[in-house]
Amino acid sequence: MRSLFRGNAAEKLAKVRAGLRHAFAVQPETQPLAIEDVQLLERIAETIVKRDMAAPATMFLESMGPMNFLGSQALHFMTPIIDCAFNVKEVEQVARLLERRDTVTRLIAIIEAKSAPKGATAR
After folding, report:
1. I need a surface site. Which of 24, 55, 101, 104 has the fewest CB within 10 A?
2. What pLDDT sits at residue 88?
3. Domain coordinates of the chain in residue numbers?
4. What is the pTM of this model?
């Protein structure tokens, strides 16, 4: 009877392990944000601060931070519906930004910087 596997099974298993080793790895966020992305985050933070929602927004973002990727996928799914009320380009840009793990912490930092009282110094 002919063997189903040709070659050494241990070699094939090693190849499979090597292929799957980084299958679910997340790329580190070493690339800086584009200028348009930073401007969008600045506009979002400015709107939040103008409406005096800095503290609730910061608390919400910190509690929901680990789910940012899920939120980005929901935005991609809902884009045709959201199209009626919002600019599609900006919705897609927000969804793309939420795919990055560091975006929420950057937005929180921008909100805190804009809501800090004038003349206050960081410790």
Report:
1. 24
2. 86
3. 33-115
4. 0.68
